[in-house]
Specification:
alpha/beta, disordered N terminus
Protein backbone atom coordinates (compact mmCIF):
# COMPACT_ATOMS: atom_id res chain seq x y z
CA UNK A 1 0.00 0.00 0.00
CA UNK A 2 2.91 2.44 0.30
CA UNK A 3 3.66 4.84 -2.53
CA UNK A 4 6.75 4.23 -4.61
CA UNK A 5 9.75 5.60 -2.67
CA UNK A 6 11.20 6.99 -5.90
CA UNK A 7 8.35 9.47 -6.13
CA UNK A 8 9.62 11.22 -3.02
CA UNK A 9 12.87 12.32 -4.63
CA UNK A 10 13.05 15.90 -5.85
CA UNK A 11 12.47 16.36 -9.53
CA UNK A 12 14.40 18.81 -11.65
CA UNK A 13 13.26 22.37 -12.14
CA UNK A 14 12.63 23.59 -15.65
CA UNK A 15 13.86 27.17 -15.85
CA UNK A 16 12.79 29.65 -18.50
CA UNK A 17 14.55 32.99 -18.18
CA UNK A 18 13.43 35.91 -20.33
CA UNK A 19 15.43 39.09 -19.92
CA UNK A 20 14.22 42.45 -21.18
CA UNK A 21 16.90 45.11 -20.93
CA UNK A 22 15.71 48.73 -21.17
CA UNK A 23 17.99 51.60 -22.03
CA UNK A 24 20.86 52.19 -19.66
CA UNK A 25 20.07 54.05 -16.50
CA UNK A 26 22.04 57.08 -15.42
CA UNK A 27 24.37 56.25 -12.52
CA UNK A 28 23.00 58.76 -9.97
CA UNK A 29 19.51 57.25 -9.97
CA UNK A 30 20.47 53.66 -10.81
CA UNK A 31 19.82 52.29 -7.30
CA UNK A 32 16.50 54.12 -6.99
CA UNK A 33 15.30 52.82 -10.33
CA UNK A 34 16.40 49.30 -9.42
CA UNK A 35 14.46 49.46 -6.15
CA UNK A 36 11.36 50.62 -8.00
CA UNK A 37 11.77 47.74 -10.43
CA UNK A 38 11.97 45.24 -7.55
CA UNK A 39 8.91 46.68 -5.83
CA UNK A 40 6.83 45.82 -8.89
CA UNK A 41 8.02 42.19 -9.10
CA UNK A 42 5.35 39.49 -8.93
CA UNK A 43 5.29 36.00 -7.38
CA UNK A 44 2.75 33.31 -8.24
CA UNK A 45 2.71 29.64 -7.16
CA UNK A 46 0.01 27.42 -8.65
CA UNK A 47 -1.08 23.83 -8.01
CA UNK A 48 -2.12 21.98 -11.18
CA UNK A 49 -4.17 18.85 -10.44
CA UNK A 50 -4.63 15.92 -12.79
CA UNK A 51 -7.01 12.92 -12.95
CA UNK A 52 -6.02 9.65 -11.29
CA UNK A 53 -5.45 6.61 -13.51
CA UNK A 54 -6.39 3.15 -12.22
CA UNK A 55 -4.68 -0.17 -12.90
CA UNK A 56 -5.51 -3.75 -11.82
CA UNK A 57 -3.18 -5.72 -14.07
CA UNK A 58 -0.43 -6.61 -11.56
CA UNK A 59 -0.25 -9.22 -8.81
CA UNK A 60 0.95 -8.63 -5.25
CA UNK A 61 4.52 -9.73 -6.04
CA UNK A 62 4.79 -7.20 -8.86
CA UNK A 63 3.33 -4.44 -6.71
CA UNK A 64 5.76 -5.35 -3.95
CA UNK A 65 8.67 -4.96 -6.34
CA UNK A 66 7.32 -1.65 -7.65
CA UNK A 67 6.83 -0.25 -4.17
CA UNK A 68 10.14 -1.50 -2.80
CA UNK A 69 8.33 -3.45 -0.07
CA UNK A 70 9.04 -7.16 0.23
CA UNK A 71 5.86 -9.24 0.33
CA UNK A 72 5.75 -11.77 3.16
CA UNK A 73 3.27 -14.18 4.68
CA UNK A 74 2.38 -11.41 7.15
CA UNK A 75 1.93 -8.61 4.64
CA UNK A 76 1.33 -8.46 0.90
CA UNK A 77 1.28 -5.27 -1.10
CA UNK A 78 -2.33 -5.14 -2.25
CA UNK A 79 -2.26 -1.60 -3.58
CA UNK A 80 0.23 1.06 -4.63
CA UNK A 81 -0.27 4.76 -5.31
CA UNK A 82 2.37 6.08 -7.69
CA UNK A 83 2.65 9.82 -8.19
CA UNK A 84 5.35 11.48 -10.27
CA UNK A 85 5.66 15.09 -9.11
CA UNK A 86 6.77 17.77 -11.50
CA UNK A 87 7.35 21.49 -11.28
CA UNK A 88 7.84 24.24 -13.80
CA UNK A 89 9.58 27.47 -12.84
CA UNK A 90 9.23 30.46 -15.13
CA UNK A 91 11.28 33.57 -14.47
CA UNK A 92 10.75 36.77 -16.40
CA UNK A 93 13.47 39.26 -15.49
CA UNK A 94 13.09 42.96 -16.09
CA UNK A 95 16.50 44.57 -15.86
CA UNK A 96 18.38 47.85 -15.95
CA UNK A 97 21.95 48.34 -17.13
CA UNK A 98 24.10 51.04 -15.54
CA UNK A 99 26.59 53.09 -17.54
CA UNK A 100 29.45 50.97 -16.16
CA UNK A 101 27.84 47.73 -17.34
CA UNK A 102 26.39 46.64 -14.00
CA UNK A 103 22.95 45.04 -14.20
CA UNK A 104 20.10 44.94 -11.71
CA UNK A 105 17.25 42.50 -12.25
CA UNK A 106 13.78 42.14 -10.73
CA UNK A 107 12.38 38.66 -11.46
CA UNK A 108 8.71 37.83 -11.83
CA UNK A 109 8.39 34.24 -10.57
CA UNK A 110 5.74 31.71 -11.57
CA UNK A 111 6.06 28.24 -10.04
CA UNK A 112 3.67 25.49 -11.15
CA UNK A 113 3.44 22.39 -8.95
CA UNK A 114 1.68 19.20 -9.98
CA UNK A 115 2.10 15.67 -11.28
CA UNK A 116 3.01 14.18 -14.63
CA UNK A 117 1.09 11.08 -13.57
CA UNK A 118 -0.91 9.69 -10.65
CA UNK A 119 -1.79 5.99 -10.74
CA UNK A 120 -3.56 3.76 -8.21
CA UNK A 121 -2.75 0.08 -8.76
CA UNK A 122 -4.80 -2.66 -7.08
CA UNK A 123 -3.56 -6.26 -6.98
CA UNK A 124 -5.14 -8.84 -9.28
CA UNK A 125 -5.72 -11.03 -6.22
CA UNK A 126 -8.48 -8.64 -5.11
CA UNK A 127 -11.30 -10.58 -6.74
CA UNK A 128 -14.37 -9.05 -5.09
CA UNK A 129 -15.81 -5.55 -5.15
CA UNK A 130 -15.65 -5.48 -1.33
CA UNK A 131 -11.90 -6.19 -1.31
CA UNK A 132 -11.20 -3.64 -4.01
CA UNK A 133 -13.25 -1.03 -2.18
CA UNK A 134 -11.36 -1.51 1.10
CA UNK A 135 -7.89 -1.41 -0.44
CA UNK A 136 -8.92 1.33 -2.83
CA UNK A 137 -10.11 3.47 0.09
CA UNK A 138 -6.66 3.19 1.65
CA UNK A 139 -4.99 4.19 -1.60
CA UNK A 140 -7.32 7.18 -1.88
CA UNK A 141 -5.80 8.41 1.37
CA UNK A 142 -2.44 8.47 -0.40
CA UNK A 143 -4.00 10.33 -3.33
CA UNK A 144 -5.45 12.88 -0.90
CA UNK A 145 -2.05 13.35 0.77
CA UNK A 146 -0.42 14.17 -2.55
CA UNK A 147 -3.14 16.55 -3.62
CA UNK A 148 -3.72 18.26 -0.28
CA UNK A 149 -0.04 18.79 0.44
CA UNK A 150 0.64 20.21 -2.99
CA UNK A 151 -2.42 22.44 -2.89
CA UNK A 152 -1.52 23.78 0.57
CA UNK A 153 2.19 23.81 -0.31
CA UNK A 154 1.58 26.07 -3.29
CA UNK A 155 -0.12 28.63 -1.05
CA UNK A 156 2.56 28.35 1.64
CA UNK A 157 5.49 28.65 -0.78
CA UNK A 158 3.92 31.70 -2.40
CA UNK A 159 3.44 33.27 1.03
CA UNK A 160 7.05 32.53 2.03
CA UNK A 161 8.42 33.99 -1.19
CA UNK A 162 6.32 37.11 -0.74
CA UNK A 163 7.55 37.54 2.85
CA UNK A 164 11.05 38.30 1.61
CA UNK A 165 11.30 42.09 1.16
CA UNK A 166 11.53 42.87 -2.56
CA UNK A 167 15.09 43.78 -3.49
CA UNK A 168 16.85 43.94 -6.85
CA UNK A 169 19.52 41.41 -7.71
CA UNK A 170 22.80 42.92 -8.90
CA UNK A 171 25.25 41.42 -11.38
CA UNK A 172 28.51 42.62 -12.89
CA UNK A 173 27.43 41.95 -16.48
CA UNK A 174 24.47 40.83 -18.54
CA UNK A 175 26.13 37.44 -19.01
CA UNK A 176 26.50 37.03 -15.25
CA UNK A 177 22.82 37.85 -14.84
CA UNK A 178 21.73 35.08 -17.22
CA UNK A 179 23.40 32.43 -15.06
CA UNK A 180 23.24 34.02 -11.63
CA UNK A 181 19.53 34.82 -11.73
CA UNK A 182 18.41 31.20 -12.00
CA UNK A 183 20.98 30.09 -9.41
CA UNK A 184 19.73 32.59 -6.82
CA UNK A 185 16.06 31.88 -7.42
CA UNK A 186 16.53 28.11 -7.27
CA UNK A 187 18.46 28.58 -4.02
CA UNK A 188 15.39 30.32 -2.55
CA UNK A 189 12.88 27.76 -3.77
CA UNK A 190 14.77 24.47 -3.25
CA UNK A 191 14.54 24.45 0.60
CA UNK A 192 10.80 25.16 0.42
CA UNK A 193 10.27 22.24 -1.96
CA UNK A 194 12.43 20.01 0.25
CA UNK A 195 10.22 20.80 3.26
CA UNK A 196 7.15 20.02 1.18
CA UNK A 197 8.61 16.63 0.22
CA UNK A 198 9.48 15.85 3.84
CA UNK A 199 5.93 16.58 4.96
CA UNK A 200 4.50 14.39 2.21
CA UNK A 201 6.80 11.51 3.14
CA UNK A 202 5.83 11.75 6.82
CA UNK A 203 2.13 11.83 5.96
CA UNK A 204 2.41 8.72 3.78
CA UNK A 205 4.33 6.90 6.51
CA UNK A 206 1.69 7.77 9.10
CA UNK A 207 -1.01 5.83 7.23
CA UNK A 208 1.24 2.94 6.20
CA UNK A 209 1.77 1.65 9.72
CA UNK A 210 1.49 -2.06 10.57
CA UNK A 211 -1.65 -1.25 12.55
CA UNK A 212 -3.24 0.36 9.49
CA UNK A 213 -2.41 -2.69 7.36
CA UNK A 214 -3.85 -5.04 9.99
CA UNK A 215 -7.06 -3.04 10.09
CA UNK A 216 -7.53 -3.22 6.32
CA UNK A 217 -6.74 -6.93 6.22
CA UNK A 218 -9.09 -7.60 9.15
CA UNK A 219 -11.92 -5.80 7.39
CA UNK A 220 -11.19 -7.73 4.20
CA UNK A 221 -11.80 -11.00 6.04
CA UNK A 222 -15.40 -9.90 6.55
CA UNK A 223 -15.94 -9.52 2.80
CA UNK A 224 -18.32 -12.08 1.29
Amino acid sequence: MPPLPATLTRYGLLIAVLAALPASAASPDFAARCNALAAAARVRVVFEDRPVAYDNHHDTAALGRRSGAAASRNHSVLGVTHATPQSRLEVTARALVDTDGRVCAAPDITLNLGFSEMTVSLARELTTACQRQLVGAHEQQHVAIWRNHYRAGARLIETRLRQTPPAPLYFATRQAMQHGLSVQIKARIAPLLARLDAGIGAAHASIDSPAAYREVESRMRTCP
